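Tip: read the tokens left to right.
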């Protein structure tokens, strides 16, 4: 590994199963300190991509480099790398601690000495003697991370770590990932839980039908998407007609919240207010709304829009992560 090597570099990655192209010429870069969200609907190719990154399956084309090394060519590429794909599996009749002892024996080295530390980090020290068959789904997910931590990784890859968790379990998982990131670990997590990613991640890639539709920071994505307005009135039909006819406004859409629209400038919004009053459509709310990650996700995965990944130097990952945590 060279000092310049980044945790994950994926170039022109393809995976075919017969005529099915599961991953279609993916380029991806995860830099040191990132909490990187890999987003996409079911069947988009997220898990297949992670399997190739971890060296579990061979790409049809392209290459993966972890800290500058190809996992298909050298087992040393996986030094300092850990994670799980889909749900982690354990022996249900053994305790959490006993399961970790088995993992440590397979890994060798100093892994056995880190069992108690790993259990403490994920909050399972008090339940380590209990059989895994009695664990909740959230506890098994945390035990999976504890198993990954036995390797003392610099890079942690997690496939849907919050899937199936109740609100308390999701909060615990979010806090755990933040703690690991604050300790200097780089994290890549695949997910379809958009609100969780919006709170956790400083950078994202959005994948659609095996291809990257966007890659970059959340701030850049929001800036490219722009912002809009929300209008709620006592006469929605009349208000929508007035809004659609108003110069300087665009993308008028009726939603469950109210009428959403874009505006070229503030004066157009002021003119709309006056027009609504004159039309007899009382205004209940007229507010500026930033696009949520969910809005942007669906605009990218349900249409043909593709936002080019940015290649220029970006802000320090730690600073971006601090901004994400402050939201």
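Filled-in amino acids:
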């Amino acid at each position: 590994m060279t000092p310049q090597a980044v945790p994950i570099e994926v170039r022109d990655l393809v995976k075919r199963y017969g005529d099915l192209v599961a991953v279609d010429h993916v380029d991806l870069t995860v830099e040191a300190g990132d909490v990187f969200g890999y987003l996409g609907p079911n069947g988009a190719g997220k898990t297949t991509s992670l399997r190739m990154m971890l060296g579990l399956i061979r790409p049809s084309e392209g290459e993966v480099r972890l800290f500058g090394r190809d996992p298909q060519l050298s087992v040393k590429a996986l030094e300092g790398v850990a994670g799980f794909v889909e749900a982690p599996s354990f022996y249900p009749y053994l305790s959490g601690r006993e399961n970790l002892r088995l993992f440590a024996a397979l890994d060798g080295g100093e892994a056995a000495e880190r069992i108690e530390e790993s259990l403490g980090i994920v909050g399972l020290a008090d339940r380590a003697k209990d059989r895994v068959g009695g664990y909740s789904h959230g506890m098994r997910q945390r035990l999976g991370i504890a198993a990954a931590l036995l390797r003392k990784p610099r890079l942690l890859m997690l496939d849907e770590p919050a899937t199936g968790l109740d609100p308390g379990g999701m909060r615990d998982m979010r806090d755990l990932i933040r703690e690991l990131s604050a300790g200097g670990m780089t994290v890549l997590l695949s997910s379809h839980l958009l609100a969780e990613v919006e709170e956790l991640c400083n950078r994202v890639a959005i994948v659609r039908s095996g291809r990257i539709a966007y890659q970059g920071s959340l701030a850049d994505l929001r800036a490219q998407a722009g912002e809009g307005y929300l209008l709620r009135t006592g006469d929605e039909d009349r208000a929508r007609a007035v809004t659609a006819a108003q110069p300087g406004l665009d993308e008028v859409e009726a939603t469950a919240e109210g009428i959403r629209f874009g505006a070229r400038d503030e004066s157009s919004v002021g003119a709309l207010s006056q027009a609504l009053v004159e039309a007899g459509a009382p205004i209940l709310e007229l507010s500026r709304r930033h696009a949520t990650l969910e809005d942007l996700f669906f605009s990218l995965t349900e249409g043909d829009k593709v936002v080019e990944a940015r290649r220029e130097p970006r802000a320090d990952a730690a600073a971006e992560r601090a901004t994400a945590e402050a939201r």
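Residues 227-290 form a domain with the Alpha-Beta Plaits fold (CATH 3.30.70.980). The chain has two domains: 8-80+153-223+295-326, 227-290.
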